[in-house]
Sequence to fold (593 residues):
Amino acid sequence: MTNNDAKNPLKIIPLGGLHEIGKNTCVFEYDNEIVLLDAGLAFPTEAMHGVNIVLPDTTYLRENKHKIKGMIVTHGHEDHIGGIAFHLKQFDIPVIYGPRLAMAMLEGKLEEAGVRDRTELRSVLPRDVVRIGKSFFVEYIRNTHSIADSFTVAIHTPLGVVIHTGDFKFDHTPVDGEKFDLQRLAEHGEKGVLCLLSDSTNAEVPGFTPSERSVYPNLDRVFSQATGRLFVTTFASSVHRISMVLELAKKHNRVVTIIGRSMLNLIAHSRNLGYIKCEDSLFQPLHTVRGMPDENVLILTTGSQGESMAAMTRIANKEHPHIKIREGDTVIFSANPIPGNTIAVVNTIDKLMMQGAKVVYGREKGVHVSGHGCQEDQKLMIALTRPKFFVPFHGEHRMLVKHSETAQSMGIPKENMIIIQNGDVIELTEDAIQVAGKVPSGIELVDTSSSGMVSSKVLQERQSMASEGIVTIATAIDWNGKLMAKPEIHLRGVVTSIQRSLLQKWVQQRIEEILGVRWGEFARGNGANDIDWGGLQETLEMEVARSLRKELQCQPSVTLLMQVPEEGSASASSVKVADGRRRRTRSTAQVAS
Fold:
């Protein structure tokens, strides 16, 4: 490494995960080489109608795809790997390194999305060091989290070592026996860590996060008290929690039926890799357990966050085709609602109780612990690594602020840390840290359509239809710019005191006014080729919508369907629909015909 190399700053650019929970995605860039760290997703809010998942804006990556040398995956949670398949449809990633469990889960996602050939997947083990490009050496350090096979990473750069904690807590009695590699962290701290990027999720909570094993006796007690069927819902990726549930099922002589595709896949991968150990006979299909005594049945499901299509939600809504709640059933919610999901979870719990189930939930029941470290965990991370510079990562703004205060209490100078937002460009040198610019950092919305992406305009239209309703207007216009019949108007979800007949008359007058004033803009001659039907349709819709919203004193979505004569016909009985928005780029002859 030359002195000139050392003068080049290291850029760290979070595209997601800051001032929010989810879609964790980070860019490390040095000397025209980019390494990605994780690529997660988030789930839509109630206002994002028809949206399935939320991704970070990847404009910067698309524009710099030639610089991408590889990706580091820290663990297999959806908010860290769920976006990879979507990104691979837009740009290649030469190689992805990650834990065995995460790679097993990711391979299935890539196969399903048809992008498996766009990258190479390579599994890593604790303390493995991988080289990415010319400037990055990445060391995987075992940590403890709520999913098995989770890692902190030490990224060796020409400027020094940057440690990214990933999601972590210090669990000294992990369910799988894989302990946090404190020794390796301390060794890096002794040699010198340039910068620490640390998980801030529980920065507001004092103390240490309890061990995952602390949940076991509380679950054991509920299992022993349940007299009917037992339902357990938790995060599908909570391998340690699921392992304990299966262990308790065997102890209490219950067979297990698994409901939910994501949970089935994760348990299969975890058993193959040895993270879950149990006999095949413990699992039974649903049709088999129907004939068994209730006290010998455990149903393990997805839906702990009230997701609309998850198994537990469908059961609560009486929409599941094979499972109905019965009096005497016990349902355990072994998860706390993540921000934004509380109402959905509470509604699900209420519906289960109304059907006669006993529901065990809430922090005081002790059936869930977080996978993220609290304040004392965060202090221990800082004490072990002893970083020169500090950046709180992964959390909402108040969490980042609180974490920075914790770091200051540990002796890190305030001027050596920064609180950033998605899109901020951190420039890190051996002697300074600063925000030196910004890249696009919005969101990309995905639904199940063929194109996948939902534009902001489409989302606004969906929100308008959901909140204010929709007005559809059908009109027919002849070659001379005159109405061939009275327009038809249909209202759906629009609240108004105006009679429909009066509204129809008003719309007719407004269309006639517009045609009288502006027809000449679109009829530039006497032939079919000289009339811009598409432009006319768009103008009519825009002008009528503006006036109609003012008249109704609300903001419904307005769609105007315009019929025009067939080419060569002057009769009103021979017409076609002109859709200007769809045909704007075609010639006027094509639109008219």
Notes: Confidence is low (pLDDT under 50) at residues 1-5, 570-593. The radius of gyration is 29 Å. The CA atoms of residues 140 and 153 lie 5 Å apart.
